[in-house]
Design a protein that fits this description.
single chain, about 160 residues, alpha+beta, four-stranded mixed β-sheet, 4 strands
Length: about 160
């Protein structure tokens, strides 16, 4: 069995809405199609808007614009301390990251946006160490530095 890479989780057949990264496009999509699950049953998204990939057992948060407003609000609430403060104690940031990573993979870019930090700083100061300590697992071990890398809380 081969180890899945980012292309296995994020290939074009899985991601149907390729323009979702454009500013405002998700707003237009929401207005014109308020219930995406009904209008596109093969969207490969769960009820929260997370990507379901055939290569991984957990869903992916890879685009915050795809999440339901309620679920996005839940994640933002979990990340309230780092979102509202420039500096927080390291143990608190680690705790927040672990809560955000519980039961799902979250890409580095989404995680950085949720906690209002630079992605590379977040990887260098927290995530790499947490992976080494096996508190966190990466989705794509073949390509650990891929910009599409995603993280999840390790099973303890």
């Amino acid at each position: 069995m081969t180890i899945p890479g980012p292309e296995d989780a994020f290939d074009s057949s899985t991601l149907e809405v390729s323009s979702s990264n454009l500013p405002g496009s998700s707003r237009i999509l929401e207005i014109s199609s308020p219930n995406l699950e009904e209008s596109s049953p093969n969207s490969n998204r769960d009820g929260f808007g997370r990507l379901i990939s055939g290569s991984h057992s957990l869903p992916f948060v890879e685009d915050l614009n795809q999440l339901t407003p309620g679920y996005l609000e839940t994640l933002q609430s979990l990340a309230e301390d780092p979102r509202s403060k420039k500096k927080i104690p390291r143990p608190l940031m680690r705790e927040v990251l672990l809560k955000l990573l519980e039961g799902q993979f979250v890409t580095l870019s989404c995680l950085a946006e949720l906690v209002s930090r630079d992605a590379e700083t977040l990887r260098g100061q927290y995530l790499s160490e947490m992976v080494k300590k096996r508190e966190v697992e990466i989705a794509f071990p073949r390509t650990p530095n891929d910009p599409r890398q995603a993280y999840t809380k390790a099973n303890s």
